[in-house]
Amino acid sequence: MSSSTDVGLLLAPDETWFRLLAPLLDDCDYYAVTPETLWMQSGDEIVSNGYHRAFLDLKERTGRPFVAHSVGWSPGGASADRRALWAERMRADHAQFQFEWWTDHLGLAEVEGRVLSLPLPLPMTAEAASVVRTSCIQASKIVPVVGVENSAFYFALGNMLDEPAFLEDALGEDGVLLLDLHNLVCNAHNLGFDPRAWLERMDLGRVIEIHVSGGGLNEAPWSAGMHLDSHDTSVPEIVWDLLAEVVPECPALRGVTLERIEGSVGPTDVPVLRDELARVRAVVS
């Protein structure tokens, strides 16, 4: 990747998404992938699926770099068997994709051998931070540059304005931060704090990548009004405002990635996403 801030897109393992957004891929400087979406179970083995080949073909055709952004490595803790399985797959994928860096969501994605669909929050303690640091060190033996993303949570085990200090402790000396602005906006809305106050407490010199995305309000009676990090709508203006504010404050920033989840892209979304990629480029230029 270049020394300036590049513009990227998170690739979705979805045939319709890939077909409709194919014309936009040349507008990107790099691509992000979620490694576990490129694998499938075959007997007792985890093997590559068709999207692994499709995304590798894209790399070979364009010559553009890839970054890895996983959901299930579980920086907050995982079994030795799960760690070994992930390490084996990531070594194989890194040998082919040559990931520029690898991030995962701050949180716990496995509890007593049970894999969760989304990471749960961690207590903001020195012990939990130490577990995350150890996970990052293990991952850095596979991909040298490793970090975590501030996750979207729907409850917190501590004061969310203490999270920046917890993140810095968890990252240690060498870890990097993926700053997800929509996650921050969701947490601020749902848990009642000022996102700018959170940013003021965070060392933005740790930020290597920024994510921008959108989401809607949950209409279920039990949680009406809760902001969802669903990646299925346009990027809201509050995220664009925060992006413009933080980019100049992130001296180590290398990429801003647009996210749009599979199953949420139709023909009318293509020009919207093209405009969003152009808007990201205008901010970072």
Describe what you observe in this structure:
- The structure is a single chain.
- The chain has one domain (6-284): Divalent-metal-dependent TIM barrel enzymes (TIM Barrel), CATH 3.20.20.
- Helices cover 37% and strands 20% of the residues.
- It has helices at residues 15-21, 50-62, 80-97, 126-140, 163-171, 181-191, 195-201, 237-246, 269-284; strands spanning 6-10, 30-33, 39-42, 45-48, 66-70, 102-105, 108-111, 114-120, 146-149, 176-180, 207-212, 255-258.
- The chain is globular and about 45 Å long.
- The mean pLDDT is 93.
Keywords, separated by commas or semicolons:
single chain; 285 residues; alpha/beta; TIM Barrel; eight-stranded parallel beta barrel; two-stranded antiparallel sheet; 12 strands; 37% helix; globular
Which helices and strands appear, and what pairs or packs with what?
Layout: E1 6-10, H1 15-21, E2 30-33, E3 39-42, E4 45-48, H2 50-62, E5 66-70, H3 80-97, E6 102-105, E7 108-111, E8 114-120, H4 126-140, E9 146-149, H5 163-171, E10 176-180, H6 181-191, H7 195-201, E11 207-212, H8 237-246, E12 255-258, H9 269-284
Parallel strand pairs: 1-2, 1-12, 2-5, 5-6, 6-9, 9-10, 10-11, 11-12
Antiparallel strand pairs: 3-4, 7-8
Rounded radius of gyration (Å): 18 Å
Outline the low-pLDDT stretches: none
Number of strands: 12
Q: Strand content of the residues, in percent?
A: 15-25%
Shape: globular
Helix proportion range: 25-40%
Question: What is the makeup of the main sheet?
Answer: 8 strands, parallel, barrel
Report the CATH C-level class: Alpha Beta
Would you identify the CATH architecture?
Answer: Alpha-Beta Barrel
The number of helical segments is 9
CATH domain topology: TIM Barrel
Tell me the structural class. alpha/beta
List the strand order in the largest sheet.
1-2-5-6-9-10-11-12
Order of SSEs: EHEEEHEHEEEHEHEHHEHEH
The end-to-end distance, rounded to whole angstroms, is 15 Å
Count of discrete domains: 1
CATH superfamily: Divalent-metal-dependent TIM barrel enzymes
